Amino acid sequence: MKNCDSQVLKYQRDMVKLSDEDRLDIKDKADTNRERLKGGLRAAEKPKPIGMHTQGSYSMKTMIQEEDRDYDIDDGVYFNKEDLVGPNGGEMSALAVRQMVCNALQDSRFNQPPEVRKNCVRVYYNDGYHVDVPSYRKIEIKDPISGEPKTAWELAGPTWKRSDARAVTAWFKTANSTRCSDASKDGNRGQFVRVTRLMKKFAKSRASWKSKTISGFAISRLVEECYLEIRSRNDRAFRSVMQQIHDRLELNDEIAHPTLNGENIVDSGNTKVAFFKDCLKENLEHTEILDDPDCTHEQAMKAWDKVFNSDWFKAQPDPDAEKKVDSRTTTGPFIKQGETRYAGNHGRFG
User: Fold this and answer.
1) At what angle do helices 165-179 and 216-226 cross, to 10 degrees?
2) Where are the beta strands (DSSP E) in 102-144?
3) What are the helix and strand counts (H, E) for the chain?
4) Phi and psi at residue 306, in whole multiples of 5°?
5) pTM, whole model, 2 decimals?
6) pLDDT of residue 327
7) Which one of 113, 146, 173, 237 is most buried, by most CB atoms within 10 A?
């Protein structure tokens, strides 16, 4: 396969990975939102949270650049179940908790007020960001093996449902640290993380795809299932994962949840899975030229531009051509205006 590792690596770094500046901006917004929520709950004499935790793609370091800056930040708020009591002393419903959180987040400075959604409260910012605040309650359950009590969490969705986003983050970071040799402790680096980012970028590379394809969580799960490290070849690793995911979805289009046994992220027969599989098939065909031993740099860059629906790759210089120019410059004669010089193995003469 034509070696395009340096170009794919640079594309991931410059055009896919969220910049440190944007990450800091997102963190500042999440922190401000937390203070707003705590203050609003306190003013209304509502239950005090026992924790707040950033989760999802931000915490897994797989958030990617968005042209419209429509960044989705998940920042969960956690309560004790015993504290979530309604006005008549009964247990608060999942909807009531989301409404309570939404009321606490209201701020006259917002152009669009926070709103209750299916699984969270969404806070909109004027520059394109939005912060999703899912609510969780702490419960005690029996360990199915030991029978001993243990802590679990339920999400305030349409009803209360078992969920633990922090366990998902831990699952992903463990996969990164154990599946690739260049992983960093903070989870920000590693081929597994880079391939996940690239796959998410591919899935959003056409505006018309965004509403038709699977979620970033589902993509992360599929990459985890199909990833195989290929050291120093991020291009081969990404293409291999594209092929493996396509073949996997051909056999089984169900995507299981990584931390909740018996639950799925996506059930069988989902049209978004079928759409994503078809996108993979179409674009894998564009990469076939890379296997031609006579594949030129221009052909390779054209193939990658097709995959990511970009014009970034065609602007990348041919490293082999540069090497030839360097070789001619350092070993052969060259002429400067107004004088004649000869450069070679014997140094300078004039």
Assistant:
1) 30
2) 115-116, 121-124, 130-133, 135-142
3) 11, 13
4) -65, -40
5) 0.86
6) 52
7) 237
**Is 96:135 a contact under the CB 8 Å cutoff?**
no
CB 90 within 8 A of CB 114: no
Provide the β-strand partners of residue 152: 139
For 42-93, give the DSSP string: HHTTPPPPSEEEEEHHHHTT--B--TT---EEEEEEEEEGGG-B-TTSSBPP
Which pair of tokens denotes residue 196?
A: 């996940």
Structure tokens at 234: 């991020």
Q: What is the pLDDT of residues 15-25, one digit of tens each?
A: 999 998 988 88
**155 φ, ψ to 5°?**
-90, 140
Q: Name residue 264's beta-bridge partners.
A: 256
Token representation of residue 305: 């531009």
What dihedral do alpha carbons 21, 24, 30, 34 form, nearest 10°? -150
Start-to-end CA distance of the chain, whole Å, equals 47
pLDDT at 129: 82
How confident is the model at residue 344, as a pLDDT? Answer: 40
Q: For residue 77, give the 3-state DSSP assignment.
A: strand
- Ranges of residues in the chain whose predicted pLDDT is under 70: 187, 322-350
Q: Closest by alpha carbon to 309, among 170, 209, 229, 228?
A: 209
User: C-alpha distances in angstroms, 169 versus 72, 164, 174, 196, 337?
Assistant: 16, 9, 9, 14, 63
Q: Which tokens belong to 120? A: 């969270």
Q: Chain-centre distance of CA 305, in angstroms? A: 20
Q: What angle do CA 11, 131, 87 make, to 5 degrees?
A: 160
At 206, which amino acid appears? Answer: R
Angle (CA) 192 197 172, round 5°: 50
The SS3 call for residue 69 is coil
Structure-token pair, residue 36: 């707003």
DSSP 3-state of 326: helix
